[in-house]
Amino acid sequence: MIKQSSPDKVRGRLVKYKLGDCLAIRLGNGDYLGALMTGKFNTYYNLTFMAFCKHSKPEMIDYELGQFFGTRFGSWEDLTYAVDQRMIECHYTDKNSAFEKIGSLDLISNFISAGYSYLNDIEQILEYYKAELPIRIEKSKNAEKFPEIAFVSKHLIEMKRIMK
């Protein structure tokens, strides 16, 4: 039998971030990325990135009115939203001063994961972000033009879709 780990602990120690926490990630060039903590699995945080990469630190309004990396499932009458999750070790994130909690959002309970993969450090985060953002912008524009494809592929989804 596999023992379920606590969502708030890793190896008996409390983790720093919780579901719904809005994080600013300071990059080496002085820019900031926005990310949302969308879960924890064993010793990893699940981070969902926002369409936010600027020289200024994000504020709560940027999260509340922003867009996240995700997709939709279902139909226009019965929508389910999915978040794209990147997993990064809790220990790395908790000890790294480049990660800062800006605030927290109250999220709905029924969003799902659109997919996940592991990232090891800030360099990999930036590499992933730079590759992924243009794809999501283009596919989101296409979904607006052609609603029948709005349930396929990677999109930028309004944050209000997963907030209570």
Walk me through what this model shows:
The chain contains 3 helices and 10 strands. It is of the alpha+beta class and about 160 residues long. Strands 3, 4, 5, 6, 7, 8, 9 and 10 form an 8-stranded mixed β-sheet that branches. It starts with 8 loop residues before the first strand and ends in a 6-residue tail after the last strand.
Short account of what is shown:
The chain is an alpha+beta fold and 164 residues long.
Keyword list:
single chain, 164 residues, alpha+beta
Instruction: Name the beta content range.
Output: 35-45%
Structural class: alpha+beta
**Tell me, what's the shape?**
globular
Compute the number of structural domains: 1
Q: Overall mean pLDDT score?
A: 89
Helix content: 10-25%
Q: Count of helical segments?
A: 3
Low-confidence stretches: 1-5
Rounded Rg? 16 Å
Order of helices and strands: EEEEEHEEHEEHE
Tell me the layout of helices and strands.
Layout: E1 9-10, E2 13-14, E3 21-26, E4 32-41, E5 44-54, H1 60-64, E6 67-75, E7 78-89, H2 90-95, E8 99-104, E9 112-118, H3 122-145, E10 155-158
Parallel strand pairs: 7-9
Antiparallel strand pairs: 1-2, 3-4, 3-8, 4-5, 5-7, 6-7, 6-10
